[in-house]
Amino acid sequence: MSTITIPKNLPSPEEDSEKLKKAFDGWGTDENAVIEILGHRNAKQRIEIADAYKRLYDESLIARLQSELSGDFEKAVILWTLDPAERDAKLANEALKSVKGDKHLWPIIEITCASSPDHLINVRKAYCSLYKYSLEEDIDLHLAQHHSLRQLLVRLVSSYRYNGEDVDDALAKSEAAKLHDDIRNNQLHDDEVIRILGTRSKSHLKATFEHYKQDYGKTIDEDIEGNKSNDELIMSLLKVAVLCLDSPAKHFAEVVRSSIVGFGTDEGSLTRAIVTRAEVDMKKIKEEYKKYGVSINDDISGDTSGDYKNFLLTLVGWAIP
Questions:
Q1: What share of the chain has pLDDT > 90, as a percent?
Q2: What is the rounded CA–CA span in Å between residue 245 and residue 298?
Q3: Are the CB atoms for 280 and 319 separated by under 8 Å?
Q4: Tens digit of pLDDT for each residue in 193-229?
Q5: Which of the four, 73, 186, 240, 321, has the lowest number of CB atoms within 10 Å?
Q6: Model pTM?
Q7: What whole-number distance in Å separates Cα of residue 221 and Cα of residue 219?
């Protein structure tokens, strides 16, 4: 479901590195060349280019990009060029350092609930390597005053979910009842709610959420939103977790839309959504986005500009004239 287009006659990493070096040298940076090369390579190929660049020129490609580019374009290209696990580890760390509400913690929910189990493991390894602490330790440190939220995030981060399709339907139905009882009784922080959402496979949870809707007449996220809990933060993040587990494409379509609509553009959220999902499920996100009566391409084109716009459009598969 990737929207990345890769040339049929793919240059070698060394050839791409030489073209990038040429784009950096001389009078000004050739941003179009940077977009044309890095925007049309998958994660494995980008890592190979970075390795070749280091080997050929004895300098970091990331560091050179940082010195040559600027603004939102720079941030987007850097996130795109990083190894995906390292990128997500950095996003998680930034989220914990700037906790100002539920949206600042969305990257951690997205990484834990909208990624594969193996990717989450790789993110945790990258986090330890980068920061010399585990992601779980940093969650404990930065959210020490919020026991329920800390408990939820640590459970989500430390989970390794079964990734298959097998589902115990009777268990899914019984857990739908348990979730309904706890939500109805304003017990969103209950250990069983966190256990179910934090450990069950996505296939199991999809079945559980379907039973919830069939048996109680509302979706689980509708009931969470209507909950009278005093803890609005955990209520909001549980809703995001449910959406990421059940329909990541719907969640990220909402992230893109909300980053564009309203006063000013939230470039950080827009960049994160496009960069982290372009190789995962962007085609699904673009289909989901049609419910807003506009294409994701047109919204990006109308709300961004310059090299930043061209780079995002490249990642979502729109050929730049």
A1: 87
A2: 28
A3: no
A4: 999 999 999 999 999 999 999 999 999 999 998 877 6
A5: 321
A6: 0.95
A7: 5
How far is the C-alpha of 193 from the C-alpha of 89, rounded, in Å?
26
Q: pLDDT per residue over 231-268, tens digit each?
A: 888 899 999 999 999 999 999 999 999 999 978 899 99
For 176-229, the DSSP string reads: HHHHHHHHHTT-TT-HHHHHHHHHS-HHHHHHHHHHHHHHHSS-HHHHHHT---
The two three-digit tokens of residue 303, written as one number: 């709300």
Contacts of range 296-299, beta carbons closer than 8 Å, 24 or more positions apart: 296/253, 296/256, 299/256, 299/257, 299/260
Structure token pair of residue 13: 């990493």
Contact 309, 274 (CB under 8 A): no
Confidence (pLDDT) at 102: 78
* Residue 193 burial (CB count, 10 A): 22
Q: What share of the chain is helix, strand, coil (3-state, %, to 5)?
A: 70, 0, 30
Residue with tokens 């070096």: 21
Nearest to 151 by CA among 103, 99, 190, 108: 190
Q: What angle do CA 49, 51, 57 make, to 5 degrees?
A: 95
